[in-house]
Design a protein that fits this description.
The complex is a heterodimer of chains A (about 110) and B (about 120). Chain A has about 110 residues and is mostly beta strands. Chain A contains no helices and eleven strands. Chain B has no helices and eleven strands. In chain B, a hairpin with a 3-residue loop joins strand 4 and strand 5. Chain B is about 0% helix and about 45% strand. The chains are: A mainly beta (about 110), B mainly beta (about 120).
């Protein structure tokens, strides 16, 4: 069974600080997605990475897929209160790339204080 | 455009009762999914459907059944609810005739279910 472990599970920081969230596995994934979820709502896709070593930037958010496609990171520069939420990584299992089946990490709850 | 709607928003249910969670999408997406979200466990796939008329099992299918009679609707049924099925349930869909793990999944607002 493929698993994705996210760390840290909880993070509380001040506005303007930088942070990194990690998503790790002992298994190879065909692709990796990051979602953000706000209270009372469903997750919303932020980014998809598919190539080992790939880096994508979305304004102040930087996403990286590990060279071996076993891990990923999300870095936020100068965090804002609007970044507060639950961040979820989700991987496409090798062998399931021709389905939409995803394996989700347990999530990282981020609180950015003004 | 409503996207994905789920009903009910929340429900308290006695153990042993039958319950159907409704999910409807108006985006004409081929693939649909049901997840449950539990604290500390993230989202886990219950069942999925790549296209109308077909369904498949996810990670945690036991105690749940689904049907996909048409493109828009994907109901999830708990035949005899148990307390361990207390969770928040999310329905999602993706637009692909050949679903892939790189597809964007669009999620509904969720149903909070409590089984006593």
């Amino acid at each position: 069974t493929q698993l994705l472990e996210q760390s840290p599970q909880f993070l509380s920081i001040q506005e303007g600080e930088n942070l990194t969230v990690y998503c790790n596995s002992s298994s190879v994934f065909s692709s990796l997605q990051w979602y953000r979820q706000e209270p009372g709502e469903g997750p919303v896709l932020l980014v998809t990475v598919v190539t080992g070593g790939e880096v994508k930037k979305l304004k102040r958010l930087t996403f990286q897929f590990g060279d071996a496609r076993k891990d990923s990171s999300l870095h936020i520069t100068a965090a804002q209160p609007g970044d507060t939420g639950l961040y979820l990584c989700a991987g496409g299992a090798v062998g399931s790339s021709n389905t939409g089946k995803l394996i989700f990490g347990q999530g990282t709850t981020l609180q950015v204080k003004p | 455009i409503a996207g994905i709607t789920q009903a009910p928003t929340s429900q308290i249910l006695a153990a042993g009762r039958r319950m159907t969670l409704r999910c409807t999408q108006d985006m004409r997406h081929n693939a649909m999914y049901w997840y449950r979200q539990d604290l500390g466990l993230g989202l886990r796939l219950i069942h999925y459907s790549n296209t109308a008329g077909t369904t498949g099992k996810g990670e945690v299918p036991d105690g749940y059944s689904v049907s996909r009679a048409n493109t828009d609707d994907f109901p999830l049924t708990l035949a005899s609810a148990v307390p361990s099925q207390t969770s928040v349930y999310f329905c999602a869909s993706s637009d692909s005739s050949h679903p892939r793990s790189t597809d964007t999944q669009y999620f509904g607002p969720g149903t909070r279910l409590t089984v006593l």
